Amino acid sequence: MYSKKEASELRQQFWTAFGQYMLPIAGAEGEKINWINYKTGEKEVYFKMAADSKSASISIEMAHKDLGLQQIYFDQFQQLRNLLQSVLTEEWDWEPQVADEHNRTISRIITRVDGVNIFDRNDWPKLISFFKPRLIALDAFWSSAKYAFEALR
Which of 32, 54, 137, 45 lies closest to 89 in space, CA to CA? Predict the structure, then answer.
């Protein structure tokens, strides 16, 4: 068991290492990307990565305060579902309304892997192998799909 400080430091070390690992990889449009804090350009639409002592996940989250607007964004993603799946080459879970870690109602498209531990450095290659191709695929999807969201701004 780790103290809060040790756990925080290990998390920070992992995300720093992952960021350094991803640094030389250009985005789908050839641009430099901050992969850890990916900017979609859409308010309250995020690509989120998370990991703890038991699992890891990567998701697209819509966190609009206006649940009607949030639903419209989720519906737009559903319209693009075939494109998303073709780029990801796997099915993700679609959650129209779910509570996030702050107990806010969000919409989410997510995939998870169990049996990995961010606090075990031996699992870091597995975590990187989980996050890297999915994050790159999300960027490839977003480079085409983002234009479908312009009218929603």
Answer: 137
- Answer yes or no: are the C-beta atoms of 135 and 22 closer than 8 Å: yes
Q: How many domains is the chain partitioned into structurally?
A: 1
Cα distances from 120 to residues 19, 65, 89, 100, 106, in angstroms, run: 18, 36, 28, 25, 30
Task: State the residue range of the domain holding 110.
Answer: 4-152
CA pair distance 64, 72, nearest whole angstrom: 10
pLDDT tens for each residue of 5-44:
999 999 999 999 999 999 999 999 999 999 999 999 999 9
Distance, CA of 92 to CA of 83 (rounded, Å) = 13
